[in-house]
Each structure stands twice: as C-alpha cells, then as structure tokens.
Amino acid sequence: MNRKLPSVPLLCGPNHPREYHRRNSVYAPVKTLVETFDVVVIGAGPAGISGAVAAGFMGARTLLIEREAQIGGAGINTGTIPSKTLRETALALSGIRSRRLYGVDLSLRREATIADFTHHRDNVMLGEHRRVGHRLDGLAVQRRVGSGAFVDANKVCITGPGNETERVRGDIILIATGSSPFRPAEFPFEHPHVHDSDEILNIESVPRVLVIVGAGVIGCEYASTFCALGTTVHLVDGRSSLLPFIDAEISSALTTALTALGVHLHLGERVAQCVTHDDGKVEVILASGESLACDDVLVCSGRTSNTERLNLGAAGIAPGHRGLIDVDENFRTTVPHIYAAGDVIGAPALAATGMEQARAAMNRALGSDLKRDVASLLPTGIYTIPEIGSIGATEESLRAAGVDYIVGRWRAADTPRGCILGDDHGMIKLLFRRDDMKLLGAHVIGEHATETVHIGMIAMLLDAGADLFNRACFNYPTLGDLYKYATYDALIQTRTSREVVVQPAK
Asked: CA 226, 229, 231: angle at the middle one, nearest 5?
C-alpha cells in the first residue's frame, strides 16, 4: 500500500478518520473496472467484523465481504451468542435455580416448545446485528454479499447470491472466513434428526432423548443446556475425562456437576454405528456393544476452516490440515500483504481471540501502534452448567515444567454470595509461584465463572499475586471475595517458612 494513513487517529477534529477520508481526494473512489480498496476483508464473523472496524477507524477505505445475507458468522448466528442465550433460556424455563434456592418449582408448567426455546435467542441476535451494522456504517465500511475467491494475490472475485460476479482489488487483504462443523462420514447428516452444532439450533422440537457425540467444549455446553430443559442426555467421548486441556481438578468438578444435573456420561467410548429407523428414531451403537436409542443425535467432532472456496492457490497460499492457514506472529500469511485471523488459523479458535487477532493484524498492516500485539494470556470461558473460567497455568503444566507452586482454594458455598446464589459446585483455584507468590494460574467453576476469571487475568497481566489480593477490598458480598480467601488459604501454607501473618479483613 503506497498511501500513508494516520498512525493513531484522534477521536474528533481534523485527524478523525472520517474527516481525513473526506478531505483527501486520494481516498475518492476511482471508477475503474476493478474497484480498489485499502483493505478487503473476506468473512464477516467476529474476526472479520473487528478487522473491518479497526481498518475503518484508521481511515482505510474498507470492504467487508460475507457470503451469507446476515453478517455475524458463527459468533452471532450459529454459535457463540445464540448458544449462550439458549443456555440462559434453559436455566429460566427449567426453574433449576428456584428449586435449589427456595424449594419451589417455578419452571414452565407445560412441555416446552421450540418457540419458548428460541424467542429470547432471536431477540438477542437481532439486537447484535443492528449494533454491528451501525458500527460498520459509522466508519464507512462498504459491504458486499457474496462468496469471495482469489483471482491473484491482490484481486478477489465476489460471486453474489444470483451468481453475479464483481472483481475488487485490495492493497491489504484479511482472511477471516471462520470455520464449520466437521462431519464424520459415519454419521447420516442427511437425516432430519442427525445434527451438527450449527443445525442443532434450528431443531423443530425439544428432544426427549439426545445423544451427543464428542465431549469437547461445544458438546459439554449443549449437554448441560438440554439436560436443564428436561431432555435425557447421553454424552459420548473416547477420552477418559472431560475437557482434558483444563485443570484436572476443575475437570473432575465439572464431571461431578454434570452427573448431578442428570447427564449420562459414556467416557472411553467411541461410536461404532449410527442407525436411523423408519419411525424417525435414531440408534447410536457404541463400540462396547451398548445401544442408545434417541430422538436426535448431535455430533461435535471439531471444526474445519472455511477455506475451500477461497482459491488460495491463486494467491500463493497453501492451506494445511482441515484448511488451516499458517500465519506468523503478526498474523501475516506467506504472502506479505495478506493476513488471516480467527478460526481460520486454528487454536485457540475463540470469538474473543479472533477479534483481538484481527485488530492487531490491521494495526500492523496499516502502520498504527494503537494495538500492536495480542496479550500473551488468553482466558477460556466455557458456558456449561456450571460455568468454567480459566487463565494461565494448570497444576499439570506446572508439575511438568518443574515449577514449585502453592495452591489456594475456596468454595463458593463458603462465601455469603455463593450461598445467596445457591452455588453448590462453585470453587476457585489459584496457583502461586512459591518463591514470590506471583499468580501463575486462576481457575473458576460455578456461577459467573466466565466473568470472575477476569480478575485473575488482570492480576497476571500486571505480574501481581498474593499481595494484591491481600490488599484489595472487594465489595461484600461478591464472588470477588473468592480471590481473597483463596489467597489466605495459600498464604497460610507459607506461614511457618515465611512467617506470614494472615489477618482477614472480613
């Protein structure tokens, strides 16, 4: 790109990107057969939208291409937001909290319909579509509906819904086409009751019996959501434990919680066959010989990058396993002016991380120092019932690295806020380096865990630890106090060797 953009635009005045855009004729559209943009973004999911917003904010003439009629990708339309909204709906309709807290059944007193299940989800999605659309329009980001494919390293051909085509040129190109559920060949997805994780959101009725194959994050989340609605859920996975990438103690606590909720776990099992019957029923036969008859099957077998339509070879890019695109630390592909972010580049493949990656990529590409890097610490939020929030090292990783550490724990039920919430399974686990009590990892399970974990994240980004939590005053009663009491638990263990005097303030 041969035009110099303002490195750090002001929020108002003559250097604001929109003023810069209007004053400088260099940004006026040139009427040619191939329209040229400073930045072309392919894919309007969380990463693509964030990349386009960042580029627009910096004054770049930006085009956002999305093959679906509605922007948002899996983040708004099929995954992140709708699945989390469905979880809250399930909690409300099931009356789980009212039964546990008050001994009163305030659940829906009739069989739930799919309309009950999706009404709030649809309203939340509509609101987010409007907010994102207004943000893009305010930054003069142009949009095209169609499937983008490379013609060469700078040109993209857009094929619209009616097969009409348009070619555009981008000085900088960001690939953010996301991912789709992987469909193993042994499952008959053409059957109306065999679903992937995108289709399950459009079921016609709430199943009485549901078999979920794959106990990863998506499988565990949907298992708890449907079980809360009264569905009999069987969760099948070939591994011996749930979510082995998280701290083992938290994984064990989740196993206990899901079992208490009513989820039937089939760990160390694999599916030998999935059989459909004329009456619409489905039968899942396990390798052990056990047969699970059900109304619906949900297959959660990972995801595949959406790169098959991009014609990456024309741009000089070779995709890897399941379509993944390799990038460097700046999210640049092997072609210097082409960047990629989000699920299309692989793990951690979370909406939040994809958004941060795209923002950093566009700042790098456009020469701005407003955001140069993505934080080295990335939180994990898992919306099971109960929730899980995690940041940093686990006990297993510290032991493998030979790091001497101290564990501080505290149960939510041993705090007034936890009792108010009726959180029987909640706990926090803090991992401190023994010699200086710096926080190395924070793991939370229970009500609002995906929010509470951020306190630990900020402490770690500040290279802080026990002293910070010991000095901090958290509102009473709140879940923030979990950090203070878990810290006291850890400090007590150092008392004899370090003569630490613990004097709780509350």
From this structure: 60
**H-run or E-run covering 264:** strand 264-267
**Dist. CA 9–CA 367, nearest whole Å:** 12
Q: Which residues of the chain have pLDDT under 50?
A: 1-32, 499-503, 505-506
Cα dist. 191→124, 188, 274 in Å? 29, 6, 11
Task: Determine the pLDDT at residue 148.
Answer: 96
CA dist., res. 484 & res. 474, Å (int): 8
pLDDT value of residue 28? 39
Say what angle helices 351-365 and 46-57 make with each other, to 10 degrees. 30
According to CATH, the topology of domain 386-498 is Enolase-like; domain 1 (3.30.390)
Count of C-beta atoms within a 10 Å radius of residue 159: 15
Per-residue pLDDT, 32:
46
Of the candidates 167, 126, 112, the residue with the CA atom closest to the CA atom of residue 144: 167
pLDDT, tens digit, 9 for 90 and up, residues 435-490: 999 999 999 999 999 999 999 999 999 999 999 999 999 999 999 999 999 999 99
Write the CATH number of the domain with boundaries 17-72+130-180+304-365.
3.50.50.60
Which CATH code, of 3.90.1200.10, 3.50.50.60, 3.30.530.20, 3.30.70.920, is assigned to 194-301? Answer: 3.50.50.60
324-333, Cβ contacts within 8 angstroms, sequence gap of 24 or more: 325/175, 330/360, 330/361, 330/364, 331/357, 331/358, 331/360, 331/361, 331/364, 332/361, 332/364, 332/365, 333/175
Instruction: Supply the pTM of this predicted model.
Output: 0.85
Quote the CA–CA distance of 156 and 148 in Å, as a whole number: 6
Which residues are within 8 A (CB) of 12 and not within 5 positions of it... i.e. 6 or more apart? none
For residues 249 and 322, what is the distance between their CA atoms, to the nearest angstrom? 32
> Burial level of 277, CB count in 10 A (0-12/13-18/19+)?
exposed
Q: Cα(23)–Cα(16) distance, rounded to whole angstroms?
A: 11
Percent above pLDDT 90 for the chain: 71
